[in-house]
Amino acid sequence: QRIPMPAPFLPILCSLLEHPDDGVKKSTLSALTRGEFTADARLTGLLELLVRSPDQQMRKASILCYCLLPTADRERLAFAALTDRHPDVVDAALGVLEECVEDLPPRLFKWLNESSAPPRQQQQVLCYLSRQGVPRQPFEDFAGRRLNDAAQMAQALHVLEDNAARSDAGWTLMKIVLS
What we know:
The chain is mainly α. It is built from ten helices and two strands. Helix 2 runs parallel beside helix 4.
């Protein structure tokens, strides 16, 4: 249950999010998740900054506060967090999206198709979708697109190998990327 917070509390909590000690920031983020109010631009900016922390607990705690953000910011930041390298952070972002996005599976498939997220994060999103009772067709469509991408990369690698006599740095880099 959320607790209504008087308007003067938000600037105080924002100041605590700027504190140099990470423990203070994490405690403040925890308090924010219990509050009932809509974030202002300052809080949105601070959450955007804190979600870039090297500390995965800080990133996760920041994402859990996205429920306070206006809808557009909440969705934008939660979708961006799906690319995080830590699975708990991605799970937190999926939880936020689950609460705020109607008809989430099609939006996640759209994100997967447009995203350049690492395969591990894509797999985590696909596993989430598989637990949501999504029909097989979107999975098959996604797999088909990925197979086409892989075939194009294999073809490009084959063309590079046909020109194996080249040894400039660009050729070598391209071969490494495609391998």
